[in-house]
């Protein structure tokens, strides 16, 4: 983000405005997200974090999908997929109060994410809380997108 040009910010801004979850955001908030957010393009099967980890980042799904897995043991051998997060969903709200992650998150397919580091997310939250409140709706920060495709039920059960 430090080396990001104004042209880069404009490209990111345009891309975020295309995501229904961000369309209600104040332009100043979107601009700040463009300045501090990182774009990540991840392959299928990448574990972003494990249940019990202390979080350092918040994420929004721009493309693709991720499985949310929970386990009753510390070895995570019994992890069960409880849902799948799709485009327009966000997760990682535990960074606001440094609580352990409630689930393991794994990319279900190639996915594009917006990642914001804890210090930046906390600063955005303090300044733009009224616009961001929907990002933290339980469970796992599902954002309103106007469709029923935000959460894909686990097809294996």
Automatic annotation (TrEMBL):
InterPro entries for the chain: cNMP-bd_dom, cNMP-bd_dom_sf, RmlC-like_jellyroll
Residues annotated as domain Cyclic nucleotide-binding: 21-124
Pfam families xrefs: cNMP_binding (PF00027)
N-terminal signal peptide: none
SMART domains xrefs: cNMP
Source organism, top-level taxon: Eukaryota
Name listed for the protein in its UniProt record: Uncharacterized protein CGEF2
Gene name of this polypeptide: CGEF2
């Amino acid at each position: 983000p430090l080396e990001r040009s104004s042209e880069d910010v404009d490209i990111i801004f345009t891309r975020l405005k295309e995501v229904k979850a961000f369309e209600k955001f104040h332009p100043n908030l979107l601009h700040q997200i463009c300045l501090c957010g990182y774009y990540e393009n991840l392959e299928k099967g990448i574990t972003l974090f494990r249940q019990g980890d202390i979080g350092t980042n918040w994420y929004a799904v721009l493309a693709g999908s991720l499985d949310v897995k929970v386990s009753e043991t510390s070895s995570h051998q019994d992890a069960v997929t409880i849902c799948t997060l799709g485009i327009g969903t966000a997760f990682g709200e535990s960074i606001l109060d440094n609580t352990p992650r409630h689930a393991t998150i794994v990319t279900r397919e190639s996915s594009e994410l917006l990642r914001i580091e804890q210090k930046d997310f906390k600063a955005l939250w303090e300044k733009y809380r009224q616009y961001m409140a929907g990002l933290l709706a339980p469970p796992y920060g599902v954002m309103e997108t106007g469709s029923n495709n935000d959460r894909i039920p686990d097809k294996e059960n």
